[in-house]
């Protein structure tokens, strides 16, 4: 409700919410699922990140947070404006390196976003 996702407390270095409460999803799967999701792309102004919501076959609701070229470019521009030493991605292996034309375009856009 209101795009608030409640998670059970999962211990992880004392944090109530962590990777232990979810799983990593390849970028290609996110790009395929977001268009058919319940919400479509949503945007969090504070995190400057997109997310979406979907319902699985068992009726459970899920939220998926991710970065896209727009959110990465905003973060890279912030790093540049502040004169910080750099920026990195969580896992570049989650990008789709297949020869599919759409995948190639998405992957290239992600890497280009890192250089504002």
From TrEMBL:
Entry protein name: DIAC acetylchitobiase
Membrane-traversing stretches: none
Residues annotated as domain GH18: 1-116
GO BP field: chitin catabolic process; oligosaccharide catabolic process
Source organism (scientific name): Trogon melanurus
InterPro entries in the cross-refs: GH, GH18_Domain-Containing, Glyco_hydro18_cat
Keyword Hydrolase applies: yes
PANTHER family on file: DI-N-ACETYLCHITOBIASE
Cellular component aspect of the GO annotation: extracellular space
Gene3D superfamilies hit by this protein: Glycosidases
One of the record's GO molecular function terms: chitinase activity
Keywords for this protein: Glycosidase, Hydrolase
Record has Hydrolase as a keyword: yes
